Amino acid sequence: MADTATTASVAAASAANASTDAPPFQLGKPRFQQTSFYGRFRHFLDIIDPRTLFVTERRLREAVQLLEDSKHGTLRPGVTNEQLWSAQKIKQAILHPDTNEKIFMPFRMSGYVPFGGTIVVGLLVPHQKLASPVFWLWLNQSHNARVDYANRNATKPSPMSKFIQGYLGAVISAVSIGVSLKVLVQKANKFTPTTRLLVQRFTLLPSIASANICNLVLMRYGELEEGIDVLDGDGNCVGSSRIAARHALLETALTQVVLPMPVLVVPPIILSMLEKTALLQARPWLLLPVQSLLCLAACGLALLLAISLFPQMSEIETSQLEPEIARATSSPTVVYNKGL
After folding, report:
1. From residue 294, how far is each of 23, 39, 133 by CA, in Å?
2. pLDDT per residue rounded down to tens, the chain (340 residues)
3. Contacts of 292 by beta carbon, 8 Å cutoff, 6+ apart
4. Long-range contacts for 138-144 (Cβ within 8 Å, ≥24 apart)?
5. Structural contact between residues 177 and 135, judged by C-beta atoms closer than 8 angstroms
6. Could you tell me where the beta strands, DSSP code E, fall in 268-328?
7. Domain boundaries in the chain?
8. CA–CA gap between residue 159 and residue 132 (Å, rounded)
9. DSSP H or E run through 9
10. Helix H or strand E segment including 230
11. Class of residue 254 by CB neighbours under 10 A (exposed 0-12, middle 13-18, buried 19+)
12. DSSP letters along 99-150, please?
C-alpha cells in the first residue's frame, strides 16, 4: 500500500513538472546556461528583479526550507521545478552566497536600479554650485562602496577597519576626480553654454568609471592580500588563491567600466533631442520626470549588460594557480565566486 502511495506521489510530481516549461531543478546551479552571454543575461535578470525586494520574511523562510528539503530529498509531493527555481531566485536575491546572511535592501543587486537610479538622476541634473555635484558624487560612491562590500566574495573575514579605510579612500578619490574634471570644463571659456552642459554630462563617464575602479579595489583589497577560496567540481574548497582574487577583481573592474556607459551617455543624448520638441518646450516641468525615467531604464539595461559579461562563479585552470593549490586537486579547473 505504501509503495502504491509513493508511486502515485512521484507520478503526481512528474506530471506537475511536465506541465511547466521550467527545466529540471538543480540545487545551487543557475537556471540558465552560463557559458553564453544570453544565458548570463537571463540569469542576472532574475537576480536584479526588483520584485524580490518585497518578499516577506515568511516567504524567504519558506523558500529556504523548500531548498533544504530538496537538498535532503524530503520534498513534499507535488512541488514543481518552477517552485524550486522561484525559491532559489528568492534566496539568491536576498542572502549572500558565502555567508547566507541577509543583504540590506538598498545594497542588493535587486535594489540597484530603484536606489542607484535615483542617485544617477541627481548626478545628471545640471548644477550651478560646486557643492551639489560633490554631494551626489559622495552619495553615488557611498552607495557603490556598500554594494561592492555587500556583494563581495566573503569566503574570508574582513575587519570593519579595512572597510572604513577603503570607503574613505574610494569617496575621496571619486570626489577629487569628478570635481577636478568639472572645474576644468567650467574654465573652458571657448565652449558655448549648451556645449559646456553636454561636456559636463559626458565628463561624468571617465570620472565615475575611474572612481568606481578605485572604489572596488579599495573596498576589496583584502581579497588580494589573503586570497579567495577556489572550489573543485564537487564544490570542495581546495585552497585560497591570490591569483584567483586578482582575476575576480579584474573581471569586476571591467564591469565597473561598462556599467556607467549607458547610464551617463544614453539619457543625455536622448534628453538633448527631447528638449527641442514642442512638448517639452511648452511643458518644461516634464524634463525631470522624463530624465528620471530615462535614467532608471538606462540603469537597468547598463547593470544587466555589465554583470552579464562574466559568470558570477568564474572558472580558471588549476595550472594557472599557486603550485600548492594545483597539487591539492586533480581537477583541471576550479571555480570561485568573483562577487558582483
Report:
1. 35, 26, 20
2. 434 444 444 444 444 444 456 788 888 788 888 888 888 898 888 888 889 999 999 999 999 999 998 888 888 888 899 999 999 999 988 888 778 888 888 888 888 888 887 887 777 776 667 677 778 878 887 887 788 778 776 666 666 777 777 778 767 777 777 677 667 666 655 666 556 556 665 666 676 777 777 777 777 777 888 888 888 877 788 888 888 888 888 888 888 888 877 877 787 788 778 878 888 788 888 877 887 888 888 888 888 888 888 888 888 888 888 888 888 888 888 888 877 6
3. 117, 118, 121
4. 138/171, 138/174, 138/175, 140/116, 140/174, 140/208, 141/170, 141/171, 141/174, 141/175, 141/211, 141/212, 141/215, 142/167, 142/171, 143/106, 143/107, 143/115, 143/116, 143/119, 144/116, 144/170, 144/212, 144/215
5. no
6. 313-317
7. 2-94, 112-337
8. 32
9. helix 2-18
10. strand 228-231
11. middle
12. T-PBPPGGGSGGGIIIIIHHHHHHHHS--SSTHHHHHHHHHHHHHHHHHHHH
Report which residue type is found at 29: K
Cell numbers at residue 206, please?
571617465
The H or E element that residue 330 is part of is: none
Percentages helix, strand, coil for the chain (3-state, rounded to 5) are 70, 5, 25
Half-sphere exposure of 234 (CA within 13 A, CB side): 5
Phi, psi dihedrals of residue 157, rounded to the nearest 5°: -65, 145
The one-letter code for the residue type at 177 is I
Hey, what's the cell of 207?
570620472
Cell digits for 6? Answer: 509513493
